[in-house]
Each structure stands twice: as C-alpha cells, then as structure tokens.
Amino acid sequence: MSPRISGLHACRAWFDARPQASDAVLALALLLVGLPQLYLEDLPRGLDELYAGTDARHLALVVGVTMTLSFRRTRPLLTLCAIVAGQTLITVWNYPPTVPDFAAYLIATYGVAAHRGLAISALGGLVSLVALNGFLLTFPTDLGLMSFMTDNALVIGVWVLGRNLRLRRAYFAELEDRAARLERARGTDARAARVEERSRIARELHDVVAHHVSVMTVQAGAARRILDRHPAGAREAMTTIEEVGRTALSEMRRIVGVLRTERDPETAGGELAPQPGLGDLGELLDHVRDTGLSVQLWVEGEARTPSPGVDVAAFRLIQEALTNTLKHAGPQARAWVRLRYTAEDLTVEIEDDGRGTATIMADNGDRPGHGLVGMYERVALYGGELRIGPRVGGGFGVRARFPLEA
C-alpha cells in the first residue's frame, strides 16, 4: 500500500471516529462555495427591489445556519429545528435565500431521516415540509403550482433517501452480526467436534491397548512357565509378544496421528492407513489363538459390506469381548464368534464358557469397566442394540445388532 493511500485511510478513520468534526468540514465547504454568492452575484431584476441588501447580520445568519450542520448526526432533530428557525429569521428580515442555508436545510432533513428512528424521523420530515411550504407561501412573487410540487417532491425525496440508507445500514449491520454469530457457532461446533473426536480416539486407544496388552501378558506368562523345560516354545512366545507389541504401536501411531498438526512426510502414509474392520477379523483371531484361547468363527447369511463406521465398530466390539475373555474367562475357556447377516442388519455374537461375570465385577468394584461402556457407546452411535451378560450353561456372552441401512 502506497503512503498516499495509507494516509487517506488514516484520515478517513479519524473523521469516522469524530462525526462532528467531519460535519463541520462539510459546513465549511458549503460556506466556501456559497458565500461568494452574497457579494459577487446580483439578484435578478425585480427581486433586488423585494429583498434587503446583504449586511453583517445576514452574513452571521447564513454562517450560523450552515455551521449548525456540525451537529446533524449527533443532534439531527435539534439541528433541523435550528436551521428552520434561522431561515425563518432570514425570511422575516427580508433577506434573500442563499445556496448554503438551503443546502443546509436539505442536508438536515436527510440527517434526521438517516440517523433517527421512524417516529423522530417522521416528525422531522413533517417539520421540514411545513417549514418549506411556509417559506413558499411567503415568497414575494407567485411561484406557481409546479414550483410547489417540485420543491415538495425534492424534500420528500431527500427524506426517503435518508430512510432508505438508514434501513440499508441496519440491514448490513444485521448481516455482520449474523455472520459473527455464525462464526461463533462454527467455532463452538468445531470445539464440540474436537471433543467428540478425542472421545472416539480414547475409545480406540482403550480397545487397542487392552487387547494387545492382554495378549502380551498371556504370552509372557506362558513363556515364563515353559522357559526352562521348553526354550523353543518360550522363544516362539517371545516372538509373538514382539509382533503383538509392534502391531499395537502401529495402531496407536495411526490413531493418535489424527491429533498431530504436522505430519512427517515419510510416515504420513502409515498414519493415514485405514481403520481395521471385519476383513481383518482372521488376523485378530489368529493373535488370540496364539495365546492359547480356542476361538471359532461362524458366518451365517450372505456377507454384505457394512458402512465404514459399522465395520470398525463391529471389529472393535469383537476385539474388546475377546480381550475380556482372555482376562477373565480362565485358562481352559473357549470362545465363539458368530456373524449373522440379514437384509436389514448385522448381528455379532461373542460367547465363552469361562467363569462369566464374577471376575469382571470383582475387578471393577461391581461397576462396568471402560471397555463395556465403550461397547455400549459404539453400538448406540450407529443405532444398534447391545446385550451383555452371563449365558445359559455358564460363561459370558455379548450380542450386538447393527442396522445395515441408515
């Protein structure tokens, strides 16, 4: 931006902050344009005999009337009344009308319409029309009907212009206020979305950490028991622990990666990898079987591709249920996973024949753990139904139904 443009912006800002000063400059400009009329121009022949000559009193009246415009925005109705009073004195003392006082009269009419509400602006318009017609009726010569109509139309037009500009300013002010409210609402929605996203990430991290740490704990215990008498088996268990640990780190890095504002280009591809779904169920069951838990899978009905959200939720539900089985069902437990597809929904069942809910309640003080709460949240998020509890004949069961159609 050039210094000249910058100076103009600064000057305009200064005058915008001081409306009375800018109105005083306007009044001075009117005087500079109109005062020469008093001394350099002669009245038309015939009128010079009807009006008194210009003197110091006339000059003082013209200057006073015009400079009253300095208050046209701060005291518009009072300014209009003062100008009408000054013009009345000019008329009574038989001085000729001039450009400055007539322009001040029109500007004051505009100001009261543009800067006050409808009631006050209507009162100002009425005062202006009454004063105008009074001046026209006392004019020393016959003006004719056309002059009356033209002058009245001019004053009404100026008043209407002021009202329209006031309404336009109010409209733009409302638009700006609405935009500010929308911006604040957008910021609130963004904060709510971040909170929801962090809650989702917390559930994902819980599922990932709980499952993989449970697998690693079981494998570490098995390796400790057979370390002396079966070193090869212990090494295999340690290898499984290493693989599960790497998988856990990879999944956590991918999940937490969404919180990062700047990604490393070399690792961005891994962080943007898709979330696991039912297509990864075989790998999950293999990890569980490596711990020694016998797991069987049944798929009933024609397999359909669920929505990405349901796909992840169903996978995490199975992962959490098998993690609880590893923790609480006991060393000799078996588990079954059943997927049942219909035209309307997907039913996921995970059952085991272990010790049931006794150890879960004991570990959590008779309150459901975060994993069970996370299950309910995931299923409810997609409009599904979830039942958790002991199964007939012993053990524990989890049954969830996900609608396949929104």
TrEMBL record:
GO terms of molecular function: kinase activity
Group of enzyme by EC: transferase
Q: What is its EC number?
A: 2.7.13.3
Instruction: Determine if Nucleotide-binding is one of this entry's keywords.
Output: yes
Domain Histidine kinase/HSP90-like ATPase, by residue range, is 309-406
Q: Which SUPFAM superfamilies match?
A: ATPase domain of HSP90 chaperone/DNA topoisomerase II/histidine kinase
Q: Which UniProt keywords apply?
A: ATP-binding, Kinase, Membrane, Nucleotide-binding, Phosphoprotein, Transferase, Transmembrane, Transmembrane helix, Two-component regulatory system
Q: Where are the transmembrane segments?
A: 77-96, 117-137, 143-162
One Pfam family in the UniProt entry: HisKA_3
Protein name as it appears in the record: histidine kinase
